[in-house]
Amino acid sequence: MDTMIATEGLTKVFGAKRVVDSVTLTVGRGEVLGFLGPNGAGKSTTMKMVTGYLQPTAGRSAICVYDVLDKPI
Has this prediction a pTM greater than 0.85? Predict the structure, then answer.
């Protein structure tokens, strides 16, 4: 299986509030991922970290084999 999206321990903290806590996931080529949760659950924040729009407090994210922090474009 070709890995298209991979995250390991993605965490985001704003001040004293931890809004995303250690998200680890792998999405393979051709897989469909549903990202569900109530308002304020951290879905948008997680996707911003996955795409490189927002730098995580901790953890890594890669699209295909490219680390988003090392190669943001």
Answer: yes
